[in-house]
Amino acid sequence: MRRPLAACVLLLAVYVALSFANDPQGYLGTDTGGKVATLRAMEHRSGIRPDVGYWAARWDPQGRFHPLSLTTRRGDQWLTVTTLPVLELALPLYRAGGYRLILLLPMVGAVAAAAAARALAGRFGASEAWAAAAFWLAGLASPVAIYALDFWEHSIGLALVAWALVVLVDIVSGRRQPAWGVGAGVLLGAAATLRTEAYVYFAIAAAVSGVALLWRVRRLAPPLVLAITLIVGCGVPLAANAGLEQAAVHGQLRADRTATQAARAPDQAVLVRAREAGLTAVGLHPSERLTAIALGLGLLALLLLLAARGSGVEGDAGLASVACVGIAVVYLLRFAEGLGFVPGLVAAAPLAGVGLAGAWRPVPARPAAIAAVAALPFIWAFQFTGGAEPQWGGRYLLPTMVVLLASGAVVLARLTKPAVTALVVVSVAVTSFGLVWLSVRTRDVARTGRTLAALPDSAVIFRISHVAREEGAFYTPTRKWLTAQSSADEARAARIMVEAGVRRLSVVSIDDRHHDSNLAGYSKVDRRRIHLFSDTPLRITSYEASP
User: Fold this and answer.
1) How many whole angstroms separate alpha carbon 162 and alpha carbon 544?
2) Does the reported pTM lie above 0.90?
3) Where exactly are the structural domains of the chain?
4) What are the CA-CA distances from residue 186 to residues 156, 235, 240, 255, 488 (Å)?
5) Which pLDDT score is estimated for 1?
């Protein structure tokens, strides 16, 4: 269990086994559906063309009603993805073994992220045994386990950033020469081709490492060498990705996405960003209510209290016991509400909350902890808004989580056995809660997709923007699906159906949110209900062309 290579192989085997609890036609989020739809479109096509097509482009050249929301037109291609490297790696695997085989990519990323947690724990001062514990806690008792089992690039980007931090820590502490900055730069640049928040971690980590190195050596040359090598190293994967994008879509995807989000950030309400920051930091419930965020802050306070008072010192046992009971009660309250997302970093990885208390000791890894925490306000200021609730463990904050979890392994080493047991139990419990939710969610999404694909009506108008995108396993460029979020859009989408000669169609909407419409050119003939999830009833209304 302590041998790194054997541990990595065993953890990968555990991920493979866990993946069979999930349906390969359902996913954690809509972005995965978009990626799978793209792979399905590319599967039997030669060359690099991530084009998902659009059957109604003749009548809707701007793609306003494209069934896969967030799809944009670039030249003669319709694109619903913004990251090409992982898709290109996944395509041969998808051709060989479908969705289950491409899951090897996020699984390998998760194993590498857990290994980085082990390395960072050692640099925080953990013994070999506790560093090995950090590996298993990161791999099986943190959000890393969730992102290993869904085809998102989060685990891969996390591993790249985490290992870059390991290299920077070694440079600052004198274990490696500043020229090794080129390696950290390559890792961070590769992460930036996958995850936009990697740019923030790059900037903050570079600044903190440069200052820390200058403080240690008291000379200007080494920090300058570090800065230059970081920039050069980062430029290599970014240039390679730009070339790949130019070849595939004759333009830029990642750079345009980053620039667009940076430009939009000042226009978005400060209160909205503050609520989403609180939710992704500590939220136990997928809700932006202030009471929900306050409960998460209370959990963080209890974790910090346990870290400070759980070492067994006389007089502290009572406070530590109160903290343990309080933590257990908070999680039991959340679990009692039923399956669903746990969106906060601290809530999904309580060991990271404990690690926050011990991350500031004068150890080699302290610059990594400073950079990981200092990056948070910038990520909250620029992250995409509107998706804070349906996510797991602050997906934009995962590198911070891994650094603090590595610090948490050191804190665990000095706590009493009951305190350690309590923390490990709640960490495993909340991750198991997430794994069960992932299994249920993928099965619900797949069941809904099979129902929609089997409708006798060949055409569907979706009144919920994300549903068709989530059903990427059932998307084809010729399937007559459209998405219309408003009643006016629904009427326009129906006119497209008329122009296309569609005789029968269905309208899919949330049962208690939309009313059946009178569509010009069609008469209503039937209505029924299905459930996307236990609390989301969908209404399917069928129409037939009027004489």
Assistant:
1) 56
2) yes
3) 4-43+86-443, 72-83+455-545
4) 14, 7, 11, 17, 49
5) 63
